[in-house]
Write a structure and sequence with these properties.
188 residues, alpha/beta, five-stranded parallel beta sheet, globular
Length: 188
């Protein structure tokens, strides 16, 4: 089987994680690539499930050892990245890789994998709706939400550089469209 990659990127609060969960439940031969981060776990998050949690120092050591396919310092001293070992794990399982990465990471992965990757940008209906979603999560302080919204404004400008843009104004429709795009790309 020709291994392919599915890259899902979006500003924080766009519904990316919910859409990815649905995509994994569609019965497609996909496996989720668990990203690494130097941020602290949120309530209920487990190491190796949502992320591989590590200190900034450990993250930097892995960068120096070239253990990442891509990485970024998203905020000061807060890194996110994709470990090469994750790609190897998924390939050994005979699956296609499903990436959940920020916008710049998504574009880096697309550049790396070229036509063997489908890069999908999940677009929120508006920045105001994004604010409402982030505030309703009640997981971040107001200053963190403000930073996320500033970053979202910037990330939205990159949408046209993705292979497809899915507007998440109605969740069921956005989930169905994403499943259709991925099924078509995989030739299933």
């Amino acid at each position: 089987m020709n291994r392919r990659s599915i890259i899902i990127s979006a500003p924080s609060g766009s519904g990316k994680t919910t859409i990815i969960r649905r995509l994994l439940a569609c019965g497609l031969p996909l496996a989720f690539s668990v990203s690494a981060t130097s941020r602290a776990p949120r309530a209920g998050e487990k190491d190796g499930t949502e992320y591989y949690f590590m200190s900034s120092e450990t993250f930097r050591e892995k960068i120096a050892a070239e253990e990442f396919v891509e990485y970024e310092e998203v905020y000061a001293n807060v890194f996110y990245g994709t470990l090469k070992s994750e790609i190897d794990r998924i390939a050994a399982a005979g699956k296609h890789v499903l990436f959940d990465v920020d916008v710049t990471g998504g574009l880096r992965l697309k550049k790396c994998y070229g036509t063997q990757a489908l890069a999908i940008f999940i677009r929120p209906p508006s920045v105001d709706e994004l604010r409402r979603r982030l505030e309703s999560r009640a997981t971040d302080a107001p200053d963190v939400i403000a930073r996320r919204l500033d970053k979202a404004q910037y990330e939205l400008s990159f949408a046209t550089r993705f292979d497809a843009v899915v507007l998440n104004d109605e969740l069921q429709r956005a989930q169905d469209e994403t499943c259709r795009l991925v099924t078509q790309f995989l030739g299933l």
